[in-house]
Amino acid sequence: MSMNDFAVLSTGRKIPLVGLGTWKSELGLVKQAVIWALQSGYRHIDCAPIYGNETEIGEAFQEMMGPEKGIRREDVFVTSKLWNTKHHPDDVEPSLLKTLKDLKLEYLDLYLIHWPHAFQRGDTPFPRKEDGTLLYDNIDYKLTWAAMEKLVGKGLVRAIGLSNFNSRQINDILSVASIKPTVLQVESHPYLAQVELLAHCRDRGLVMTAYSPLGSPDRAWKHPEEPVLLAEPAIAALAKKYNKTPAQIIIRWQTQRGVVTIPKSVTQSRIKENIQVFDFTLEPEEMNQVTALHRGWRYIVPTITVTVSQTCHFHAHHPTEHYSLVYLTH
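The line above is the sequence of alcohol dehydrogenase (NADP(+)); the predicted structure tokens follow.
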């Protein structure tokens, strides 16, 4: 990757436009995937404790990074996230320290609040009542943010940011922030272009990161009638024109918009392909053509039954939608 393949955070630091996502990357496979990624030129790895694989990713870091190993720690951008049960200010630093221990790192380049809502404190990732409904906490995410800011002062993280927050919630954080969020990570792909949210972020100095950028085709809960992004004819036509894969066209569309993209794969050939997107440029009308595929389609739509007040606090994008938390790990 060249220096042109980065976005610049408000802190002045660079974040590689393509990173390796690790959500749904199984134990026994994720370590090798991270090693292949680093060998293929990736310098950005996206992690989270709820993915259940940070310890194995740490083993890959230990093998690949450090003096005399060819890759310096300071050249790899590592992101992780604070889970919903750890929003209480007293839990923020211990949660980060656990992630650092698992990843075998002394600091993170970026630490995100994973979701804007909080679950009941504790070590059960999805705390539930006897009837199976989730147990929530009413801790204000602005208090969580204040605790996140302290991590920067201690040198434990280089930057902090948000994930799955909407425009109003971003403004909430900005209204109290001493250290502003640098990144917003959300689902984004041609069927969910996030044009308005991207503009909101740009206006406020946040870089957007797109998760599930290829439509998350390996989800266990796929609906047989859902649209298949990688089979979209307009994208297939561009792939043929540029002699690229549909995935490469989609990733290139995001990077040309200045959106950081973190496709997940544990397949060596796809890991290599997904970063080979900087040797061609889509024409402006082709960029517009891909953006016009937007249909407001979310592949990552967890369902939660909650009270009205909790719903308002929870929803990252659709305040009127009812979510269930079966899939809420991204």
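Note on the example: The mean pLDDT is 88. The chain has eleven helices and twelve strands.
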